[in-house]
Amino acid sequence: MAQALPKPALRPFLPADVPILAAIFAASIEELTGDDYNEAQQQAWMEAAESEEFGKRLGADLTLVATLEGSPVGFASLHGADHIRMLYVHPAVSGQGIATMLVDALEKLAGGRGTEKLTVDASDTAQGFFAKRGYVAMQRNSITVNDEWLANTTMQKTLGTGPASGALQ
């Protein structure tokens, strides 16, 4: 008899999550962004999780944690009412719908709060994911992270449009 795969679940961020979410953040950057960013850029980006600021940002935002069998495997955060600040999934579960589940939830929460448009500064690695969800590129950015230049793209979605709409039914 076939065994069912464990179903992912969502829960709110807890301060005790910071170390495991920092590890997911680093693993995601190290293993999933190599086609778009060089090693020095990846290292500079990963170092952001080593500061106290990382946990403070997670706590200040509306942060959701995706779990499998109770263990965190990804997270996403909504900064303010309308900006997805972070979306990271452990490479071991990449492509299994975890990021989609996280962004669906953020879109629904934002829409339920009256937000009409969401923005995200998508890495080159994540840009295709967001485009498939109906986010449109607005501008290209170059940012400095720990003395390294990284490119990303500000993307925007009007809630209630595009695939997997976040509008409440």
> Which CATH architecture of the domain at 8-115 would you pick?
3-Layer(aba) Sandwich
Report, as a whole number of angstroms, the end-to-end distance.
37 Å
Reading the helices and strands in chain order gives EHHHEEEHEHEE
CATH topology of the domain at 8-115: Aminopeptidase
Name the shape in a single word. globular
Helix content range of the residues, please? 25-40%
| Poorly predicted segments | 164-169
Average predicted local confidence, pLDDT = 91
Major sheet, described briefly?
7 strands, mixed
SSE class:
alpha+beta
Q: What's the level 1 CATH class of the domain at 8-115?
A: Alpha Beta
Q: What do we call the CATH homologous superfamily of the domain at 8-115?
A: Gcn5-related N-acetyltransferase (GNAT)
GO molecular function, one term: acyltransferase activity, transferring groups other than amino-acyl groups
InterPro entries: Acyl_CoA_acyltransferase (IPR016181), GNAT_dom (IPR000182), N-acetyltrans/Recomb-assoc (IPR052564)
Organism: Bradyrhizobium betae
Keywords: Transferase
Please describe what this structure looks like.
- The protein is of the alpha+beta class and 169 residues long.
- The chain has a domain at 8-115: Aminopeptidase (3-Layer(aba) Sandwich), CATH 3.40.630.30.
- 31% of the residues lie in helices and 33% in strands.
- It has helices at 18-32, 39-46, 52-60, 98-112, 127-132, and strands at 8-12, 62-68, 71-79, 83-89, 117-123, 136-145, 148-158.
- Strands 1-2-3-4-5-7-6 form a 7-stranded mixed beta sheet.
- Helix 1 (18-32) runs antiparallel to helix 2 (39-46).
- The longest helix has 15 residues, at 18-32.
- It is globular and about 45 Å long.
- The relative contact order is 0.16.
- Mean pLDDT is 91; it is low at 164-169.
